[in-house]
Specification:
Number of strands: 9
CATH topology: Rossmann fold
Shape: globular
Low-confidence stretches: none
CATH superfamily: Nucleoside phosphorylase domain
Order of helices and strands: HEEEEHEEHEHEHEH
Number of helices: 6
Bound molecules: hypoxanthine
Mean pLDDT: 95
Oligomer: single chain
Distance between the termini: 36 Å
Strand content: 15-25%
Length: 275
């Protein structure tokens, strides 16, 4: 059995053999947000199924490949499609790409997602800068034997979402006249949406948005010392808030509709992050 750090090394060695330059940062594109990868100059495509130890992504609206190339003057390794806990992947499989990204020398991880708005002040289509998270997934990617070659047993989570990256995102939003909400993202296991009672409980707990990704990746990134920027696109108001039922199709539809503006924002932020 390979240790986690051996698996990371094998995956990273493979990717390095396929990349023609050193990546500066990595970007994970959430549901319906994958089109940003199409703006990468001179793209190199690497399907996840070719990468040693990688699982295969099954979520709708997710392509399942790395796209590498230049974006906003930076060499970006983009994950067009991510692995979710609700797909049945174990947490280690979700942590692996993050660790590989760190091993490849990336100095930032930009996590994007579609999320439900929990804060009553939010509206569908809003962008939310993630300032912190609540792990409500009932699992942690660091559970089990710790591989000290990757990070410490007990991992500090005080500044998962790097304050200097948050500041850069705020500045881009202000310059571009893009309203940017801020708040706490609560990670829910899914794949069922939440009940209205759960949403009321999550609001009381301090959540502003809820989604089914991002938290495991952010924990893995903290563990291996990779600073994170997180941005949510609010694709719907959470269960019980809008007087209608929720559907995955609506999430994808709104993500696609707001995608171009969201992608333009993220592209600017990629160029502005202090690395
Ligand atoms: N809940 C959980 N995940 C989501 C939602 C939601 O309302 N919208 C988009 N992803």
């Amino acid at each position: 059995m390979s240790t986690p750090s051996q698996m990371v090394r094998e995956s990273a060695d493979f990717l390095r053999s396929r990349l023609n330059a050193q990546p500066d940062l990595a970007l994970v594109l959430g549901s319906g947000l994958g089109d940003l990868a199409n703006e990468i100059e001179n793209p190199v495509y690497i399907p996840y199924q070719e990468v040693p130890h990688f699982p295969v992504s099954t979520a709708p609206g997710h392509a399942g490949r790395f796209v590498f190339g230049r974006l906003s003057g930076r060499m970006v390794l983009c994950m067009q499609g991510r692995f979710h806990y609700y797909e049945g992947h174990d947490m280690a499989a979700i942590a692996l790409p993050v660790r590989v990204i760190k091993a490849l020398g990336c100095r930032a991880l930009v996590l994007t997602n579609a999320a439900g708005g929990v804060n009553w002040d939010f509206s569908v289509g809003d962008f939310m800068l993630i300032t912190d998270h609540i792990n409500f997934m009932g699992a942690n990617p660091l559970r089990g034997e710790n591989d000290e070659a990757i990070g410490p047993r007990f991992c500090d989570m005080t500044h998962v979402y790097a304050p200097e990256f948050q500041q850069a995102a705020r500045q881009v939003a202000a310059e571009q006249g893009i309203p940017l909400r801020e708040g706490v993202y609560l990670g829910y296991m899914g794949p069922s949406f939440e009940t209205p009672a759960e949403i009321r409980a999550f609001r009381t707990l301090g959540a502003d948005a809820v989604g089914m990704s991002t938290v495991p990746e952010a924990i893995a990134a903290s563990h291996c010392g990779l600073p994170v920027l997180g941005v949510s696109l609010i694709t719907n108001m959470a269960a019980g808030m809008a007087g209608k039922r929720l559907s995955g199709e609506e999430v994808i539809e709104i993500a696609n509709r707001r995608g171009p503006v969201f992608q333009a924002f993220i592209r600017q932020v990629v160029g502005a992050l202090p690395l």
